[in-house]
């Protein structure tokens, strides 16, 4: 009897049953074992291929928003005049957070290019032996931003915008708090203005910049909020954003990147006071060097900065 080739596997096992009913020989048993082994291997191969395809499909579904990789076409775009007359200076106060910087620069560059925002990225790197002073570094960024920019973003290096609807455009009507309390993953009090804040250079100058008295982590944003009110500037925040606390990716790891939250001597009382005179007018610093870098195709300028401290005024700029 003749059988079609596609039915051979089924009929072959029918013959095997007859094959075993007779006298068993070594050759017959060996042949049967070889058939079973080959069939098992074929079944295993088909099963594994299916599992691998399913696993691959699962891996392609992101568990959480991931920083986009800038396309090669985007990487070269930094200042396209057709995007408008305004240009943004991204001012990043920085010290020893290189892992976060490697993520931030290409991420924000791609984000701004996608939204057609002319920009340049300034990393203000504190290289002196004093405690970290975020506010003074932002003052340095404003001063060193050049005449080719007309507004700035006070931008934390560990905060990445995930919603393309977030507006980094020129804040003509007043300061625009991108990382508003309704959207920031950690800070939700009404007077919070940290994380990401956009201001025109004119408005920043009206506030005399930020106070230079805040050495260590925290409180400088709260004092700056009072400066905005004193200058009678209207603060704006995003509207129509529906992503809530998932609007930003906060990449800071407190387990291995601990903040300097120590309060030394009179600093405990001074941190809650308004600094009526300090700011751009009493900023003292030295630019040690400038470095033009490209990180994953995204350009940035690192300004290595040595701040100066009047220890008679703020002895808490040093610890110990």
Automatic annotation (TrEMBL):
Compartments (UniProt record): Golgi apparatus membrane
E.C. code: 2.4.1.-
GO molecular function: metal ion binding; xylosylprotein 4-beta-galactosyltransferase activity
Record-given protein name: Beta-1,4-galactosyltransferase
Pfam families the UniProt entry points to: Glyco_transf_7C, Glyco_transf_7N
PANTHER family xref list: BETA-1,4-GALACTOSYLTRANSFERASE (PTHR19300), BETA-1,4-GALACTOSYLTRANSFERASE 7 (PTHR19300:SF30)
Record CDD domains: b4GalT
Domain Galactosyltransferase N-terminal: 85-168
Alphabetized UniProt keyword annotations: Glycoprotein, Glycosyltransferase, Golgi apparatus, Manganese, Membrane, Metal-binding, Signal-anchor, Transferase, Transmembrane, Transmembrane helix
Species assigned in the record: Maylandia zebra
């Amino acid at each position: 009897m003749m059988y079609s080739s596609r039915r051979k596997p089924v009929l072959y096992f029918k013959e095997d049953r007859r094959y075993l009913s007779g006298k068993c020989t070594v050759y017959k048993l060996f042949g049967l074992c070889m058939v079973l082994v080959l069939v098992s291997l074929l079944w295993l191969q088909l099963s594994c291929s299916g599992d691998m395809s399913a696993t691959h499909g699962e891996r392609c579904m992101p568990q959480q928003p991931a920083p986009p990789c800038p396309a090669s076409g985007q990487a070269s775009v930094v200042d396209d005049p057709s995007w408008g007359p305004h240009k943004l200076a991204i001012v990043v106060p920085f010290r020893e957070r290189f892992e976060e910087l490697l993520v931030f620069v290409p991420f924000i560059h791609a984000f701004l290019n996608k939204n057609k925002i002319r920009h340049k990225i300034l990393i203000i790197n504190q290289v002196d032996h004093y405690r970290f002073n975020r506010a003074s570094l932002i003052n340095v960024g404003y001063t060193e931003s050049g005449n080719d920019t007309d507004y700035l973003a006070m931008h934390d290096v560990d905060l990445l915008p995930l919603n393309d609807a977030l507006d980094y455009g020129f804040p003509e009507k007043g300061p625009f708090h991108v990382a508003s309390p309704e959207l920031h993953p950690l800070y939700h009090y009404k007077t919070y203005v940290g994380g990401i804040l956009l201001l025109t250079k004119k408005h920043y100058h009206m506030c005399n910049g930020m106070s230079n008295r805040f050495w260590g982590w925290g409180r400088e944003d709260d004092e700056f909020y009072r400066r905005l009110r004193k200058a009678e500037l209207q603060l704006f925040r995003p509207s129509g954003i529906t992503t809530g606390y998932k609007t930003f990716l906060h990449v800071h790891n407190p387990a291995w990147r601990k903040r300097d939250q120590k309060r030394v001597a009179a600093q405990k009382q001074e941190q809650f006071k308004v600094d009526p005179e300090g700011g751009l007018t009493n900023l003292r610093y030295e630019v040690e060097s400038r470095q033009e870098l490209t990180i994953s195709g995204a350009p940035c300028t690192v300004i290595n900065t040595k701040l100066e401290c009047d220890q008679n005024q703020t002895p808490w700029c040093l610890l110990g």
